[in-house]
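Table S5 (text form). Sequence records supplied for joint modeling of the two-component complex.
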Amino acid sequence: MLFPKWRRVLAPLFLSLLLLISSCALKPPSPYAQAQQESTQRGAQPAIVKNAEQGSSFNRFFPKPGNGYERVFTQEKKGFAEAKLKKEGKDLAMLAISDTISLPSASQKFQTSSQKISGYPAVEVGNTQTAVLVANRYQVKVLSRNPAFTQNDRQAWIQKFDLNGLSRLK
Amino acid sequence: MSKPIFELVDELPTGGITVMALRSLDFVVPGQWQNLVGFNHTIQTVTGETDESLIQQIGERAVHLYNDKSQGYQRALWLYQTVDSASGALGAAAMANKVGQDISFLGFLGNLTPKPEKAQSIDLCIKLVVELVAFCQINGIPGDSIGDFLAALGDYSGESLMRMAALVCFDGLIPLGPDFILKGLSTIQGTSPAELEHNQTFQGVRDLIPGGNAAGQLGFITQSFDSVKGWMGDFVASRGLTPETVVDHLTQFVEISKDKLDYLGAFMDIAVKYYSHTGTQTLARRLIERAVAEL
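The corresponding structure-token record, covering 465 residues in total, follows.
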């Protein structure tokens, strides 16, 4: 034998080490890889379309604070406005209005709904969300941020938005 | 291309010096900061939703929003990251300055680097303004509205409140002492636009500071700091914060010998990247809050 015994062991050892390293390097693709590619490729559709309504025009339709409830506006972006509903310093829920013109699937989900709140098509989403669609375009959502804030509370607070005013927004 | 948002959130560290330094400030803002990491975990925690396909949809919408450059999220993250790395460079310069004072044959270094206290004061003011500008990029309140920012400061919580606690403690109390607010304000008032242009932290972020030119930007920085000084003063007084209490807690978490306190501020500048870390967390939370509401 030309090679001592330890050298014969060396080659398989290195090979298996190499396999081990390369298999560690091959991460499984992220579940968001496709969304990443779609939104960064040339000519990608922007997340918010040009003719979306300004978030500032939504603010006046939000429920008014009072009776111990605080309302803190948290976001105001194109096509979106959001406020936090608080009581005694605790977060209860998020209140939001968005323009579904940028995200047609958001308005499509109402098509199969038979439920209505204040005459507007309504849906429950997940465990924490109640939504209505106004003027076939603007989505109003209340999202629980506290287990004590139930589906009934969400439905009650959605009716405190000025939904009719929002339906006339031009 | 910059990193995808889900990778940035997935890769946030769960340990290391930044995380330990922030944990040491739990006594300042008890229970406010849990070091939320991982994109899906953040979605679950922020929204309270558990259904996998819903979480996937929320995550995808967040990815789309983040990648739409017109929405300002990438600029906000750039600000958080840049103010950390630029002030790290300041830390390195300050360290060289300290060495210059201690060792005579390196004395010439003292001429090359700014006086630490002045540089630290400007640094503090700029970091505060970066918070204001990044807040507006993320949440969209028009770029120079200091009043809205103040109303929102009152509602700061979680990682945003922790970032402000770290600003007060690591960039105020430790390097500048108990009267850091006065020092910061008098320094920025006594700074010329030309001096401001030489500050490395400012150079890093100047493109996104409102004001047009250096003189206008200096005015904006001064006005912003002046408006927030009351909030900072209350923050310190209501918690009885002193440099000593902060250092005491810090040394329980991070190995620093107390006889090297002179170097502590400079060391923190280089080693602790709290703006990037908590800024990524703040950005992820706001993106997810918007994504779930829009779906």
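Note: The CA atoms of residues 94 and 114 of chain B lie 7 Å apart.
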